[in-house]
Amino acid sequence: MDEKELPVSLSVKDVEIAYRVVKPLRLSSLIKNALKSTPKQKKFHAVKGISFEVKRGEIVGLIGKNGSGKSTLLRAIANIYSPDKGSIDTYGNTVGLMAIGVGFQNLLSGRENIYLSGMLMGFNKKQIQEKEQEIIDFSELGSFIDEPVASYSSGMHSKLAFSITAIMETDIVLVDETLSVGDIAFKQKSLAKMKELIRRDDKTVLIVSHSIPTLLELCHRVIWMHDGVMKMDGDPQEVLDRYCEFMNANTPKTEAPH
Questions:
Q1: Nearest one of 98, 92, 43 to 208, comparing CA atoms
Q2: Model pTM?
Q3: 49: left (phi over 0), alpha (psi -120 to 50) or beta
Q4: Is 98 within 8 Å of 180 (Cβ atoms)?
């Protein structure tokens, strides 16, 4: 892949995202706060000034311990969250997010959520209708496709989310741990489908995963995030080696029983 000739599909510049954290309060504290006009709320800074670009056809992995801001960043790129600072530019590309239940309405059926998700991706009703049966067949949900999504297991959520994004074929594909959820047979099928998508030069892919073998096999680049900041961006083997060294050095060791 000659990166110099490829256009940029995604640009993330100085992005910051913070959550307001509300702690559970005792009754006395609730009464005290109710008398205040502006109760104090702490902020958790999930993403702190992240910047990078992804060219068309690139597959970029995101790794980091839980709470590093990876999923939050992916949802901001998918336009589910808005950055508090900075900018995200997708240059008019359609974006699909593969994640458990993101954007699903629990009271609607799986079939109805296919249409809702497709429209949120920017497709019209006719385009979704043309892909509807293919999505249902790939998801392997059978008659459950007409049941409320609230009744789905996490594996069923994952299957439907993956199927919608994979079959609707957006320009930018965002994968949030979806490949690691579900039964072995579906995992193998989804990995094969992902490889098929990746081989196409017009697809741009970001994958959040804790699976080092998956990132090594699929990605051209890996970005390591830690506590909301970018620690490293580069060759998958180099980044993942450094990440593993860091995690091994900073993970508390449990003593063997005497």
A1: 98
A2: 0.80
A3: left
A4: no
